[in-house]
TrEMBL record:
Residues 1-21 are annotated as: Disordered. This is sphingosine kinase. Its EC number is 2.7.1.91. It comes from Drosophila rubida. It comes from the Eukaryota. One of its GO terms (cellular component) is endomembrane system. The keyword Nucleotidyltransferase does not apply. Residues 201-347 form the DAGKc domain. GO terms for biological process: regulation of apoptotic process; sphingosine biosynthetic process. It is an enzyme of class 2 (transferase). The keyword Iron does not apply. Residues 7-21 have a biased composition (Polar residues). SUPFAM superfamilies: NAD kinase/diacylglycerol kinase-like (SSF111331). Pfam families: DAGK_cat, YegS_C.
């Protein structure tokens, strides 16, 4: 019996859950059989990731590649049906293996628990007498197409074939040992909130809210083609709800029991996320809920400011595939505190996570709705139109300066350290340059394999070799699946809300209570005077008054995918960046300001007569005109006076690993 067989037998004896947690580092020797000769590989799985070492006959390491654990999202182990010809092309096996054709498998074999797809059919030895089990690891590795190109995430499927034993059950048991070791390693990186308390090998469920009208109206397709496959590869169970009308998410979040979910994922734009946040803060138990639920977003809207700010803050590639990056973020199992802003209007209180606007940018945001079919380009078109027909607004803006000299918070310090590590990774050469390259025209198309010869049998991708495997597993593996990915292997559920009478009654009662109550009070209380009371100048309040082209208060780095509005802003810094542009500014100066917003160098180093950038903790806007547009997170609110104050770190958002 070979050494690998002895290790497998020992591990199968000590197969208690506690022992499996202790034996989370696994390694073994594999070889490939090629025309030019055989190659020996030492494969290791530990806390650093998945490492392959090619060894010379004398045992000296020739090459080494590592797929980092943070880039691996999940794995599957299963049995494939293959023809004799395809078996000959995939010869990655454990050493000391008898001839595959001499193996006598047992019919009706029971697959390992992790072999989800093999529940559909029974597999003993197939017609060719092969009893091999296969382990597939799904990874999204940071790579560069060229020295001048930017980093991007590239999907790679790593494949190991186990056939050290004569029966499929024994080989599957060995593959299952590796699968469970990987699951333990991945779960060890999760924050406690994401792990099921009753079963530490499972993740808790996620709630997905999808707005089918977001952006260009293709959120359903985006979720089905690009998000669901990633959730299923990571074995994240989820419940999908589709919104039916405006403010639906507010009603849902404020009335539903949320104990079953550890995270809420918004598939849509910033408007949907705004509804989710305000719905949560309308609850009596808002503090408990916000402490026990993480928030995430999949960018399917027109602006997508929050998703862009998160990716920018943690140096995660965005433009190559925004949806993929966001999908990997919501399965990362990591989170960060995020500041919120309490906004008091004349008749209600609401909460904001992105911005408050008055003037030019708000005009463009709302008035361009009539050309929504152009997607994000509608903002550029309407900006040029509004620049040619420039308006000014008269008003008074009072603000309470922030203490920018104070020491940064612990969360901000940790974020800076993580960002520095990621920047070092970006500037270095990829350690995975010899790992197989997955190339495709789009994420939803079938992959094409490019394999270095010495690794073509150890690591393989979705090719003609495993098309039968692909056809059976396309509901979770393939972005181009014809099946609905709403029903995932992780027991995820798609919900149609049209006939939920109980929810409708809850909505009606909540709406009636709101109407009867008049001014809404929910969430954390304010430390500011009432909106109709004067501000105490002794507390340090300062005033700007006169004609303004715009006022925009921002607490994320980006307002949109290419609008780097507040470069210094972080998720949890306790600062509102108040940008004022006064009337009288020349059109060329204003055009330069707007044009440079994409690069983030539009703000002056020192405040001047027309443009001021003020870090504040709170502010009050009092328009003197009786017309204009005021927006909160890109959504129009009633025109009139308002005041806002920062609420540091009261929510948590999911961030990249």
């Amino acid at each position: 019996m070979s050494k690998s067989q002895e290790r497998s037998n020992n591990s199968s004896v000590n197969s208690t859950p506690h022992a499996m947690q202790l034996q989370h580092n696994v390694s073994d020797t594999f070889y490939t059989s090629q025309r030019k000769g055989s190659h020996v590989f030492r494969v290791r799985l530990d806390a650093t990731g998945f490492t392959l070492q090619r060894e010379s006959p004398s045992g000296v390491t020739i090459k080494e590649q590592t797929v980092k654990l943070c880039d691996i999202v999940g794995a599957r182990c299963m049995r494939l049906k293959k023809s004799t010809r395809s078996l000959a092309r995939c010869a990655c096996v454990n050493p000391g293996t008898p001839a595959a054709g001499g193996a006598a498998g047992r019919k009706g074999a029971t697959p390992s628990k992790c072999s989800t797809t093999s529940k559909e059919e029974d597999y003993g030895c197939n017609a060719d007498g092969d009893a091999s089990a296969y382990l597939y690891l799904f990874a999204y590795v940071l790579k560069k197409k060229s020295l001048r190109s930017s980093l991007h995430r590239e999907r790679t499927v790593l494949t190991l074939r186990f056939r050290s034993f004569d029966t499929f059950e024994d080989n599957m048991r060995e593959a299952d040992r590796w699968y469970r070791a990987l699951r333990w390693q991945l779960h060890n990186t999760l924050e406690e909130i994401f792990v099921d308390r009753l079963d530490e090998t499972r993740r808790r469920r996620a709630l997905v809210l999808l707005n089918p009208k977001s952006g260009s109206g293709n959120a359903r397709e985006v979720f089905n083609m690009h998000v669901a496959p990633v959730l299923n590869e990571a074995e994240v169970p989820y419940d999908l709800y589709v919104t039916k009308h405006s403010n639906y998410a507010i009603e849902f979040m404020s009335t539903r029991r949320l104990d079953d979910w550890c995270s809420i994922i918004a598939v849509g734009g910033d408007g949907l996320f705004h509804e989710i946040v305000n719905g949560l803060l309308r609850r009596e138990d808002w503090a408990k809920v916000l402490d026990s639920i993480e928030l995430g977003i999949i960018p399917c809207g027109s602006g997508n400011g929050l998703a862009r700010s998160i990716s920018h803050g943690y140096n995660e590639p965005y433009f190559s595939n925004p949806v993929l990056g966001a999908a990997l973020t919501v399965i990362s199992g990591r989170s960060s505190p995020m500041d919120m802003v309490r906004v008091q209007l004349e008749q209600r209180v609401m909460y904001s996570f992105l911005s408050i606007g008055w003037g030019l940018i708000s005009d463009v945001d709302i008035e361009s709705e009539c050309i929504r079919m152009f997607g994000y380009q509608r903002f550029t078109i309407w900006t040029l139109y509004r620049l040619a027909n420039l308006r000014t607004y008269n008003g008074k803006i009072s603000y309470l300066p922030a203490d920018t000299e104070a020491a940064p918070t612990q969360a901000a310090t940790e974020q800076s350290q993580q960002l520095e590590e990621l920047r070092k990774l970006q500037s270095s050469r990829s350690c995975n340059m010899h790992i197989d390259k997955l190339a495709s025209d789009s994420y939803s198309r079938r992959s094409i394999e490019y394999l270095p010869q010495e690794f073509e049998d150890v690591i393989s991708l979705e090719t003609s070799i495993n098309q039968s495997f692909r056809s059976r597993c396309d509901s979770w593996l393939s972005g181009g699946s014809r099946r609905s990915c709403y029903y995932s292997i992780s027991e995820s559920v798609y919900h149609s809300l049209a006939d939920e009478s109980e929810f409708a009654q809850q909505q009606s009662s909540a709406t009636a209570a709101t109407t009867a109550g008049g001014l809404e009070h929910f969430g954390p209380s304010s430390s500011l005077p009432a909106l109709d009371e004067p501000l105490p100048q002794s507390a340090g309040w300062l005033v700007e008054e006169g004609e303004f082209v715009m006022m925009h208060a921002v607490y994320q780095s980006h307002l949109g995918i290419d609008c780097h509005f507040a470069p210094k802003s972080q998720l949890h810094d306790g600062i509102i960046y108040l940008v004022l542009i006064r009337g009288g500014i020349s059109r060329p100066h204003l055009l330069s300001f707007l044009y440079n917003m994409s690069a983030g160098n539009h703000l002056p180093e020192k405040n001047n007569e027309y443009v001021k950038v003020l870090p504040v903790r709170a502010f009050r806007l009092e328009p003197h005109d009786n017309h204009g547009i005021i927006t909160v997170d890109g959504e129009r609110v009633e025109f009139g006076p308002l005041q806002a104050e920062i609420m540091p770190g009261i929510a948590r958002v999911m961030i990249p690993k």
